Automatic annotation (TrEMBL):
Domain GerMN: 88-179, 240-329
Any Pfam family matching the protein: Germane
Domain of life: Bacteria
Name of this protein: Germination protein M
Region (Disordered): 329-349
Length: 349
């Protein structure tokens, strides 16, 4: 009897239990576990973060990279690089052969730093000296590139306003000479050391001073400007006149460089400087064609780039026989002085 009663009780509990399990299942379907919601939120957050990173990566900024052209000159080319908080390290990485510059190189140009060179660190001191530490691969370059490498590093880094000088290290050790050909390295590399230095015909270099002038070069349909450092005698003419006369003289024979100045172009007066502006007064030979009042774009740009390398010069105004009635090749009046572009060889200037 007791056994029969126990069996009935168990059977009753089982029947009631089915109802409980059924209700519990229904509740779960209506109110799913919270960990599912957490997972969905986490996935959404990751997607947002990835989208933000992609958007940030697409932001670019114009940077000058000094590369070597087919004629062996160190030349600025302007590229749109991704924005970064480590801009100085970034531009150096873009100077490395087979690095990120590979897909961007213009025809006729090559990178200046040896393949696999790593930028171990970049630190700037309060006095504006930027200390760069390269990996050991930095020493694996051709001897003829040694001075070009120094110039490219210096001019690429000093495009930043807060960088005045550059100091080079390799694997943490200060470099006083270059590792291949032994070129001395100044404690303070700067733009004052020059770029694409010409010393042809200079007998007594101690009695000269440097000027930088921009000549033309061409690769296919592309025309670009090349900075050249020349030595001019001390005391014979003021600095601004010296710059203009070197442009008129033209590039050295066999250099591969070009000029858009006629041989009989002359300054009629000494350049006038006032509040950052230089005014030049030429004879009519400055006209780049038979069409009166038209000055060649290339001649104009060479003048502006060269003269604004001089301290304090920001703009250039041009007159002919004292009259400011010139136009450029596009017919735009040059009634206002022309300023230096922010970057060189951008395609528009």
């Amino acid at each position: 009897m007791r056994r029969a009663w126990s069996i009935l009780m168990i059977f009753a509990i089982l029947l009631s239990g089915c109802g409980l399990f059924g209700k519990e299942k229904a509740v779960k379907e209506i109110d799913p576990p919270k960990d599912v919601t957490y997972l969905e939120d986490e996935q959404s957050l990751q997607e947002i973060e990835q989208t933000n990173e992609k958007e940030k990566a697409t932001e670019t900024i114009q940077r000058e990279l000094y590369l070597i052209d087919k004629n062996g000159f160190v030349v600025p080319q302007t590229f749109a690089l991704p924005k970064t908080n480590a801009a100085a390290k970034q531009v150096l990485e873009y100077l490395v052969e087979n690095g990120p510059i590979s897909e961007m190189l213009p025809n006729g140009f090559r990178a200046v730093l040896p393949a696999d060179t790593e930028i171990l660190s970049v630190n700037i001191k309060q006095d504006g000296t930027l200390i760069v530490d390269f990996s050991k691969e930095f020493a694996h370059y051709k001897p003829e590139d040694e001075k070009k490498i120094l110039q490219a590093i210096t001019w690429t880094l000093t495009q930043f306003d807060n960088v005045k000088r550059v100091k080079i290290r390799m694997n943490g050790h200060d470099q006083h000479v270059m590792p291949v050909n032994g070129t001395p390295i100044s404690e303070e590399l700067s733009r004052e050391d020059g770029i694409n230095i010409e010393t042809n015909g200079v007998i007594d270099i101690t009695n000269t001073h440097a000027v930088i002038v921009y000549f033309l070069a061409q690769e296919g349909d592309q025309t670009y400007y090349v900075p050249v450092t020349r030595r001019v005698p001390n005391g014979e003419q003021d600095q601004l006149t010296a710059v203009v006369n070197e442009l008129i003289k033209g590039p050295s024979y066999g250099s591969g460089l070009l000029s858009d100045f006629q041989a009989d172009v002359k300054l009629l007066d000494a350049p006038k400087y006032e509040n950052g502006k230089v005014t030049l007064n030429f004879n009519e030979a400055i006209y780049g064609s038979a069409q009166k009042n038209v000055i060649s774009q290339h001649a104009l740009h060479s003048l502006v780039l060269s003269l604004t390398e001089q301290p304090g010069v920001e703009k250039v105004a041009i007159t002919v026989n004292g009259k400011a009635d010139l136009v450029d090749e596009n017919g735009k009046p040059l009634s206002e002085p022309v300023a230096r572009p922010e970057k060189v060889n951008t395609g528009s200037f």
